[in-house]
Amino acid sequence: MKKRTLTNEQKRLDVNLWIIALATMAVYVAYGMIGKPLMAFCKDSSISVWPRLLAAAGMEFGIAGLGITLVCIFRKIPFADFGLKKENALKAVAGTVACFVPYIAFIVLSGQFEGYEPLSIMVTPDLHKAGVLTTVIGTLIVAIVWGFFEGFNYAVIAEFISRRYPVKAKLFDWGALVCTLMGILFHPIHFDALGMVDLATTFVALYGMLMIRKHTKNSWGCVFAFLFIWNAI
């Protein structure tokens, strides 16, 4: 059987995906080695909030942002080329919110809702105690790392996979599926009845978000979801 020859574009996409995968795996290996002391350091309120915030932000960016940033620098591709534009932005945000409605309803109805706290991470209470300037700058860092890059990371990886393995189906996309499964794997999974509902609503939210991104060609919905929904409830 004759071996299929890859086009130059397919080869470039393969390299892009390998750069992202290797960079992310390297950070995960580092986290596996220093994760416990790092978490203890970040939670220690007796230490200044800035080194704790920057340590947590550095690790988070390494997992959800470093790979795609390296590719965009290497390929000289501006972030805007991946759907960060005004056209269809409201449609992308509205569609994404609709996809998250079942997940939000599940969180509320299952008694897991403890309050709406966008842009809140483990060091946020200490940020608020450190003064207005620290609160503003620190919250901006949280928004960029845990909001923008987490959501945009999904959008870029899904786009690369979709270009590499294109399909014509309107409701199926390899990039959306792979990134959704990635998100689910990093989401706590329980195999009881509630766990299965959690799994189903999470799948609908993430897969729907990425399909909305594909059809609107706009990534602001992904960013909005991680700024104001995924990390907020």
Structure explained in plain terms:
By secondary structure, this protein is mostly helical. The protein contains nine helices and no strands. It is globular. The termini are far apart.
Question: How are the elements arranged and paired?
Answer:
Elements: H1 8-43, H2 49-63, H3 66-75, H4 89-109, H5 124-129, H6 132-164, H7 174-185, H8 193-216, H9 220-230
Helix pairs in contact: 1-2, 1-3, 1-6, 2-6, 4-8, 4-9, 6-7, 6-9, 7-8, 8-9
Keywords:
233 residues, mainly alpha, 9 helices, 0% strand
Strand content: under 5%
Class by helix and strand content?
mainly alpha
Structural Rg: 19 Å
Q: Could you report the average pLDDT, rounded to the nearest whole number?
A: 94
Head-to-tail CA distance between termini: 53 Å
Helix content: over 70%
Sheet with the most strands, sense and barrel status: none
- Low-pLDDT runs of 5+ residues are none
Gross geometry: globular
* Count of runs of 4 or more consecutive helical residues: 9
DSSP summary, beta strand count = 0
